[in-house]
UniProtKB/TrEMBL annotation:
Protein species of origin: Macleaya cordata
PROSITE patterns tied to this protein: PPR
Pfam family name, one: PPR_1
GO biological process annotation, one example: RNA modification
Entry GO MF terms: RNA binding
Residue spans of the PPR repeats: 85-119
Protein name: Pentatricopeptide repeat
Source taxon at top rank: Eukaryota
Keywords: Repeat
Length: 256
C-alpha cells in the first residue's frame, strides 16, 4: 500500500478509478481508517462516485463497527442512486449486521428487488452472529424456496447460530445435511462450530471424538474450543489428551 500511495500522489489525474483502488486496497488489508480517509478526500475533491466506490466504504465502516459512518454511507447510496446495485445492497446488509442494527439490515434485504447467494448468506450471517437461531433457520428455508443453494459460508453462519442459540440437535442435522444433501465437505470452520456447540452443551467426549474423525487438520480454533469445553465442565482427562496432541503437533511442525 505504501508503493500504491507513492504512485497515487505522483499521478497527474487522480480519477475515480484510482480513488476506488486506494479505498478498496486499504479495506482489503483491514486498514479501515485509511480507507475512509481516502473516501473523505475523494468527496472533498468532488470526484464522482461510481458503483465500485461504496461497497468498500461500507466494508470499512463495518470493520470499525461504526454505525454512524455506515448510515452516512447509506445516505450516499440513496443520493447517487445506487440502492438497486446488488453489490452495494449486499454491503449494506453486512455493514448493518456487523454494527448490530439487524432491523436496518432486514429492511434493506426486504426491499431488494434482486438477491443472490451473497445476499442470503449476509443476512443469515447477521442473524447468526447475534444468536437469533430461529430467524436463521427460517431464512434458510426461504432461501431454498427461492432456488438458491447454500455454500460453506452459509453453513458456517447456521452452525454458529445453532451453537449460540443452544440448538444442538438442529446443528447436528445441518452438519450432516452439508455433505449428505448439498455435497459440501465440512471445512475446519464448520468443525470448530460443531466442537463449540457440543462443548457448550456439555458433550465434551462427543466433541473430542468429532475432532479425532476430522478429515482436515484441526487448527488452533478447534483445539481452543475443545479445551474451553474441558475447562468449563472440568474434563481433566480429555484436556490431558488434547494437550498431548497439541504438543505432538507442534513437535512435528518443528521437524518439518
Amino acid at each position: 500500500m505504501e508503493e500504491a500511495v507513492f504512485i497515487f500522489n505522483r499521478t497527474n489525474r487522480q480519477s475515480t478509478f484510482l480513488y476506488n483502488s486506494m479505498i478498496r486496497g486499504y479495506a482489503s488489508v483491514n486498514l479501515f481508517r485509511k480507507s475512509l480517509n481516502f473516501y473523505r478526500h475523494m468527496t472533498l475533491q468532488r470526484k464522482q462516485l461510481d458503483l465500485h466506490t461504496l461497497p468498500s466504504v461500507l466494508k470499512s465502516c463495518a470493520g470499525l463497527s461504526s454505525l454512524h459512518l455506515g448510515r452516512k454511507a447509506h445516505v450516499a447510496v440513496f443520493k447517487h442512486g445506487f440502492f438497486y446495485d446488488l453489490a452495494t445492497s449486499n454491503a449494506l446488509i453486512s455493514m448493518y449486521s456487523k454494527c448490530g442494527d439487524l432491523e436496518a439490515a432486514r429492511q434493506v434485504f426486504d426491499k431488494m428487488p434482486e438477491r443472490n447467494l451473497i445476499t442470503w448468506s449476509a443476512m443469515i450471517s447477521g442473524y447468526g452472529m447475534h444468536g437469533t437461531s430461529g430467524e436463521v433457520l427460517g431464512l434458510f428455508e426461504e432461501m431454498l424456496v427461492a432456488g438458491e443453494s447454500p455454500d460453506g459460508a452459509t453453513f458456517t453462519s447456521i452452525l454458529t447460530a445453532c451453537s449460540h442459540g443452544g440448538r444442538m440437535e438442529m446443528g447436528r442435522k445441518f452438519f450432516e445435511m452439508m455433505e449428505g444433501r448439498f455435497g459440501l465437505k465440512p471445512g475446519v470452520e464448520h468443525y470448530t462450530c460443531m466442537v463449540d456447540m457440543l462443548g457448550r452443551a456439555g458433550h465434551v467426549e462427543e466433541a473430542e471424538a468429532l475432532v479425532n474423525e476430522m478429515e482436515v487438520e484441526p487448527d488452533d480454533g478447534v483445539w481452543g474450543a475443545l479445551l474451553g469445553a474441558c475447562n468449563m465442565y472440568r474434563k481433566v482427562e480429555v484436556a490431558k489428551r488434547v494437550e498431548e496432541k497439541i504438543l505432538h503437533r507442534k513437535l512435528n511442525s518443528k521437524r518439518v
